[in-house]
Amino acid sequence: MSRYIVKRILQSLLTVVIVVIAVFLLLRLMPTSGYFTREDYINMTEEMRSAYLKSLGVTDPAFIQLQRFFTGVFKGDLGRSITVYPKLPIRTILAEKVPYSLWFGLASMFISVTLGFGLGILMARFKDRWPDHLGTAYVVTVRAIPSLIYLFLIQIWVTGIMRWPMVFYEDRPVTWILPVVSLSLTGIAWYGIWLRRFMVDEENRDYIKFARSKGLSQKYIMRHHVLRNAVVPLVQYLPVQLLLTIAGSLIIESIYSIPGMGGLLVYAIKQQDNNLVQVLVLIYAVLGVAGVFVGDLLMAFVDPRIRLAEKKKKKEALRV
Fold first, then answer.
1. Tens digit of each residue's pLDDT (9 = 90 or more) over 48-59
2. What is the membrane topology noted in the UniProt record heading this document (predicted)?
3. CA-based Rg of the chain, rounded to a whole angstrom?
4. Does residue 30 sit within a domain?
């Protein structure tokens, strides 16, 4: 297990480094106007622009710029925003926005897993009956209709019926409900339909038929055999979904005017804020890779067959 963990850590680090280097070099192909605010670019002469770019180190070779960036990251210096929040430290920007995305992400993930697993169990337990049909209708609706449409309708109808504000207010907890619920709808459908599928597949396996022939109750079989084995494939994706949800949702945060990280990357790209873009890409890359890594570890701990396979390889190696 230890060799496996070390190997996956090294692979994860290599993936993050490759992604950051690729984005870093691509950003250097962008026009240098992205290093200026609009007013500064208009008011500066060509000589002044060249001197400013030189002071930023943009004219240095790409290798030196990349080395300087990674050195700053290891020291905790993420640089400063250029056009989105001129001259404001990126650490300050993230410190203001991350808590919002973190809170909404964790809350929506809890609801998604709880209700999604419950929906999947209900659909599998009453397969081809009305609970299964209702659950399937919900999943099809959520996945077939563009999310912007039903999220906007939910915002209009619910706020109109409940007399709630249409946007997020930090000092009014009632305005936190709709963003969390809206952010959970897709996750509920995803967990529900996949858990149902895995449970139905497990029910058709030979060991389940053998358990029934031994006289075990359906409730015992569903809890200790079907559900336990059906959850294993989903465990791998839980950390990925959690970390990506925490990173924020562009649509939800835009609709409810939540000052999180959801639209920050897109806005930074539009404004050509290269410093902010490369830091955000680093964060998203780390979140995605970390989610896959943690998912693999959970699979190894949850599924005994992975550990047994590793032990078998070790024994074969020792024999040789």
1. 878 877 877 777
2. Multi-pass membrane protein
3. 25
4. no
